[in-house]
Amino acid sequence: SNLAACYELRGDVERSVPLREAAIKVFDRLSVRAESIQQRAALGQVLAEAGRFDRSEVLLQEALKLLKGMQNPQGMSQVQSSLGVLRTRQGRFDEALTHIFKAHEIAEGMGKLGTAAGYLQNAGAVYTLRGDFARGLRVYDQAIEAFEELGDKMALATALSNVAAIRADLGQRTEAIELYKRSMAILKAAGNDHLLAHTTGNLGGAYMLDEDYARAMPLFEESRRLFKARGDPRGEATALANMATAHKKQGNTREALKGYEAALAIHKRSKDALGTAETLGSMGDLHAIAKRYTKAITLLTEARDLAAKHGLHGSLSTILANLGLAQLRSGNLTGAMKTTRAADAALRLVLGRLSDEGAARARSTWATLYRTGIRAARQAGDPVAVFEFIERGRAAALLEALGGRETLQAVVLPPELRAAEAAARAAEAGAAKRYRRAMAGKDAKAVLARRKAWRASQAAAQVVVERIQREAKAAAEVVYAEPRALSDMQASLAEDQALVLYALMGQGSSALVITKSGARHVDLESDTLIAEAAENLLAAIDPGVPDVSPEVKALRALVIDPLALPASITRLSVSPSGALSYVPLRLLIGARELSYVPSGSTALSLAALKESASGPVLAIGDPTYDTGDKAAGGLRSGWALKRLPGTRVEAKAIGGTVLLGDDATEAGFREAVSARKHWRAVHFACHGTIDRARPMLSALALTPSDEDDGFLTALDVLRTPIPANLVVLSACETGKGEVSEGEGLLGLTRAFMLAGSPRVLCSLWRVPDEASQAMMIKFYELWNPKSGSGGLSAATALAKAQTWLQGHDKWKHPYYWGAWVLWGRSDA
């Protein structure tokens, strides 16, 4: 056992594993149960780090079962942490977080605060790998605070280095470099050459990101020297690969190749499958950049086979993506499409059953993969394949959730999980209440402390909700949703209808135009030109700019005119991409009806949601922002929300059931919406706030109460069934949010779709109260006439209401009527 540990410190897994196996046999024969369990756990972690996942899983689950039987919380905490390592290496990040937070909970309950802080640091690392930098930094901050209080300098140095890595990835190079230097000072003083070697290399990486190779290269050399002196071949190979990458970025192909080859030799001697596969992949990518496609494809194929053999799904996805790109550039269009499909399949295993928002973020980091498939299909003149790859990379997380919605609703969650949600919600409400009280006082320090606590309670609630989403999906056996076929999409369209899928991707931007009779792709200008034109149009939509026609004409020439839509197409559904997600396309398309959809496949899924031909409208308006606690409006935005008296008239004119003023609370809304099986519409006339960094905390501002903070967040909406034909968000900027590439807008719009509404009407910018009121009343007169006669479809009613508003001199400017967009189904 001790000899195995020595080999592990040297990075020599091949010699360690048989020794651990032998130790397990001896301890089993001697019936030394505690040591037998410990050896299983240790070997399980070693194998996880070496990429031998199947054997690792067996050992760790055996150890956990035995520890539960012995009621050994400390051992259970350690094994839960090791399972977190395993899931992380497999790329199953949400499951990794579940294990790590269980480990943290056990350690904290035992009073092992240093261990618990270490687990928080591990969670921060997983959040970072998942691309959730904001949450990763919050968790790391908690860990750093704990390490400083405990005086654990080594752990503090590691945490500082990890935070530095995140800062570097976020482009905050100066902060990253200072954090690395602070960490290195601690490590040098302690003589910890092992951690110093890692941190020195990381500091070199930060300088490399700044293209400061003169500072980076000596640090990589020093890192290599330290690793070599310690007998750590894996670390030495990492340093060599870093040096090779620096040469690659400077265009020194020969030196880069020599560095990768040296690293590869070490990985092969160490029998490090992961390091070997990744280095082969880097070499293949290098040859592809040099346009040596035959050599690139050979190396990437070897890397692919090795990663597949050892179940290295995270690396396999990257390798396949690079292989597909090399095949595309070499002219092998069929191979590129086949490889992109394989990469998509591997990616499903990496992502696992993530929460809805987590899945959206993660898939967006792979947008370039689907671009390869789109470009190959487009060059091959295959619109069916173009549709397939656009759909595979677009709104997959939303499609998955919609597809499993009914089975998810039937899932009975464990009492422990329901209790955790209730506790998290209570903690969040309590923290919000204490924050409001602090803001009513004059103690700035207390306000900051309460605000920090409130933010932390929100983050904790989100963690619980994500866990609920993950476990519900697992229990309901919700699987990765396959996109629908192009033929299904065509069959769903009427003769006068077209679906346009935009794909803005560098110089190869394009659009796919689908009608009942066929599909064709259209080449567009670069995404940079389109984004510029979109920004110019949005800037011009201001009452101070009397004529926006030049900006409208410029953008129309880039994204509408090339489509060459015949006059017979009077209804248009658009799946936007990038900057087009924020553009009022209504200004560009003339008299045609318009609706937005996340993707073609989600449009078909939304069509399957149950609807009622009649029913009342639930309207919420004129929330109380300025009575009682005057600071309530400052909870989210930092400034007081002004009351909207015009929304009282609006809600009364529209609603059959109306919640106004002090009754327009979160609790009042939940009680009212649950009173009926189905609503014709649910209408919110209030302020809205958009949190682009954390889309699930974007919210509608209702009346605060003792029970809640008054902010109905997208997270709250996901937890509230809202059975309605239509949800109207008559609030400022509710149609905005984070644009997650491949997934579209995240936040309120998709939350209401998942809650049960196939249509969401929202706004792209703040519309003056009077114009908004007139617009909404007119829309409902057309869509849901109180006379009982049949109304127009939502898309038709919206178009006519906008034309009507435009006909008034005081509202003719697009600023007053152009903000409104309809997401989801356009019919009915």
Tell me the strand percentage band.
5-15%
Report how far the terminal alpha carbons are from each other: 70 Å
Number of strands: 16
Q: Strand arrangement, largest sheet? A: 7-6-8-12-15-16
Please outline the major beta sheet: 6 strands, mixed
- Structural class, from helix and strand content? alpha/beta
Average residue-wise pLDDT: 84
The low-pLDDT segments are 404-411, 476-480, 627-639, 737-745
Number of DSSP helices?
37
Instruction: Supply Rg.
Output: 28 Å
Q: Share of helix among residues?
A: 55-70%
Which geometry do the CA atoms define? Answer: globular
Describe this structure in words.
The chain is an alpha/beta fold and 828 residues long. The protein is 62% helix and 10% strand. It has 37 helices and 16 strands. The strands form 4 sheets. It has a 6-stranded mixed sheet with strand order 7-6-8-12-15-16, with helices on both faces. Strand 13 (738-740) and strand 14 form a beta hairpin.
